[in-house]
Amino acid sequence: PYRLLLQEMNEGAATVMPDGTVLYCNKRFAAMLGVPLEKVIGYRLKDFIEPASGALLEGLLRSGKYTRVKEEIAFATPGGPTPVYCSIGPVSLDGVQCLSFVATDLTEQKRSEEIVASEKLIRQILDSAADVIIVCDEQGNITHASRVGYELAGTSAVLRHRFEEVFPLTFKNGEPVTCSVGQERSLVGSCLNGRTVQALEVEFVRSDGKKFDLLMSAGPLRDRRDLSRGCVFTLTDITRLKVAEEELRESQAQLADELSDTKLLQGISAALIEEESAENLYEKILAAAVTVMHSDFASMQMLFPERGVGGELRLLAFRGFSPEAARFWEWVSAGDDSSCAAALRCGRRVIVRDVETRDVIRTDAAIAEYREVGIRSIQSTPLFSRGGNVVGMISTHWRKPHEPSERDLRLLDILARQAADLIERKRSEEALRESEEKLRRQAEELEQQLIASGRLVSLGEITASMAHEFNNPLGIAMGFAEDLLSEKKPEDADYQPLKIIHGETKRCQKIIQDLLEYARPRPVEKRASDAGELIEKSFKLMANHLHKHRIESALNIEANLPFIEGDPQQIQQVLVNLYLNAIEAMPDGGRLVVSARRKSNATLEISVTDTGIGIAPDELGKIFQPFFSAKKKSGLGLGLPICRRIVANHGGTIEVESRPGQGTTFRICLPVKEMPAEESDERAVG
Asked: S-S: 101 plus which of 14, 402, 515, 668, CB 3.0-4.6 Å?
């Protein structure tokens, strides 16, 4: 649009490089030079300037890089030198420093001044002149005025009045133009002394309040003997030129803003596309939102439509406020008193210009929370998928009352579109990766099962008969050992051998029991169980055992753990087995830490960490294989495989991390069971 405006201007206009190379010009500029438009663009200005104006032009180009400068120079045209008034100033296009060049043809003005010198042509000039022409006598009184001069003055009371009374002019710095003879720097006095004034920019405010930008020239009025008899003023209305310059500057500024916005969004898009981590992705989106909206805080939420009526928004990332404040909005339902809840209910952007007006947020508790965080103004924009479904919410917050501009909201909408698309894509990629990982683990498990299948076939065939054949004699041997021990005292010589016989007999029974349990696992009797209670109960069972082995212990259970659906006895069996393994790994004492937390909406994580001897890296991948034991002197190698099978039968996973000499951590992940609202409330009260 600014180029169209330049083409319609009466003045010549061009955009040039600091060295004077013409990048663009309008038709009027080329016409003033008297050459075709294509012979101007790409050429340097000095090629079209009279040699006498060359040095002046170079100085104007140097100064014009920092501020707008104005001066009269002469164009070298085929018809001879053409005087022009040029205005040169800095301008930036797409980050490139350029100069704007606006030229006003002074040819007619010069001619007017020459004709005015001739007394007999004054009336003809005054009647036909397009510019204001004012003739004053030696005292500064107006003796002649052109028709346009009357129009500019806005009154017929012009003649025989002092020039500065009819035209109270001021320079751009606000200083008044002095014309009275005898006063310092009087223009009339200067003209009477033979001096001329060329192309001074002045301002004129008419009695009706209308403001004009004028270009003023003044020179002496001479008689036939070449004596100064007065002063001739010419005033050229350049108000339209000023408006055009301002519109040009605004258009250039708008273009620069648009280019800046485009670069910002392109940079954001590139960063979001390249980012792999979902958490980092959310952070980049929030950083972009804060930049675009000039806000103090920002937050991003994901919608879980399956939670309650209308779904619930879960906080994914936040910027500006503390983690303690963020917990207040960790979960937001559609019925809550907040801007994001209101946007979720209505499905469109909600703007709260001032929280204190209570237009959207009305409860005292909600407003108090916003006050504590320091939030005064909010906007919440829903994130829509390509299918038109809400997938989340992006909000920005300000410390003071604020109303976002249309430009800011337009940029935020573009960012929200990108964010929604990329969130969906990232979620799909993560789901695909999880699926691939699950298939890989299943393949590995199947491979291990196939490896063990040969052993299990044989084990299943002999276990039943072996258990019968071994248990009976072992029971008899244990009974005799117990009878003999009851008759002996610890100081007797055969007391210790009998105790060894009794212990080894019990160990044989345990081996047979493990074989039976692995070959013929008991069915899982699932029911809703309080995970926290199961963990605490199993931990208490080991209290004396831990104290006996000089092991410090800690139990870290997250509050309000969800229920799980499983067999409580088997889950306790898994935990106790892990505790016993940890105790054996710390023969000289150590520390055992058991933790439990909700890992995700659908998963509970239990971790058992010891500070024992650890597991060698080459053995870490084998510990869940049947009959493999990291214990060199004891163990059949079925404890961990049994634990893994029990966890798998509950729909969960068990993983291990270990560093030799530092300790081992087992992590069990089990699916949670969502309880009805009334049961959850009863549990919370209890």
From this structure: 14
**Helix (H, G, I), strand (E, B), or coil: what is residue 450?**
helix
How large a percentage of the chain has pLDDT more than 90? 27
> Per residue in 415-428, pLDDT tens?
888 778 877 777 77
Cβ atoms of residues 295 and 289 within 8 Å: yes
Read off the tokens for 675. Answer: 């309880």
568-584 helix and 639-649 helix, angle to the nearest 10 degrees: 150
Q: Strand pairing partners for 396?
A: 298, 379
The candidate with the shortest Cα–Cα distance to 295, out of 379, 373, 207, is 379
> By the 8 A CB rule, do 61 and 53 touch?
no
Type of residue numbered 606: I
Phi (first) and psi of residue 194, to 5 degrees: 90, 5
Q: Which residues, in sequence order, are CB contacts of 238 under 8 Å at separation 6+?
A: 104, 201, 213, 214, 215
**Gyration radius from the chain CA atoms:** 46
Joined together, the tokens standing for residue 149 give 């001069």
Q: Please report the DSSP string for 124-163 in residue order.
A: HHHHH-SSEEEEE-TTSBEEEE-HHHHHHHTSS--TTSBH
How many CB atoms sit inside 10 A of residue 15's CB? 19
Residue of 204, 161, 201 whose CA lies nearest to 180: 161
| End-to-end Cα, the chain, rounded Å | 72
Least confident among 181-190, 349-358, 575-584? 181-190
Ranges 179-188, 250-259, 290-299, most confident: 290-299
Burial class (CB in 10 A: 0-12, 13-18, 19+), 209: exposed
Laid out side by side, the sheet with 331-333 consists of: 331-333, 312-319, 297-304, 390-398, 377-384, 350-352
Residue 176, strand partner residues: 170
Residue 507 banded pLDDT, cuts 50, 70, 90 = low
Q: How far apart are CA 605 and CA 292, in angstroms?
A: 39
Those residues with Cβ within 8 angstroms of residue 376's Cβ, 6 or more apart along the chain or in another chain: 354, 355, 356, 370, 398, 399, 400, 401, 402
Structure tokens at 125: 């000039």
Please give the Cα distance from 85 to 74 (Å, whole number): 9
Q: Which two tokens stand for residue 334?
A: 């559609």
Distance CA 252, CA 255 (A): 5
Closest CA to 108 of 91, 128, 123: 128
Q: Which long-range contacts (CB under 8 A, 24 or more apart) does 337-341 make?
A: 337/361, 337/362, 337/363, 337/365, 337/366, 338/366, 339/378, 339/379, 339/380, 339/395, 340/299, 340/301, 340/313, 340/380, 340/393, 340/395, 341/313
CA distances from 132 to 436, 474, 530, 607 (A): 85, 130, 97, 93
CA separation for the pair 75, 137 (Å, rounded) = 34
User: Measured between alpha carbons, how far is 663 from 657 in angstroms, rounded to an integer?
Assistant: 9
- Residue 676 DSSP one-character state: P
Q: Which phi and psi angles does 97 have, rounded to 5°?
A: -75, 120
Instruction: Tokens for 502, please give them.
Output: 């009794």
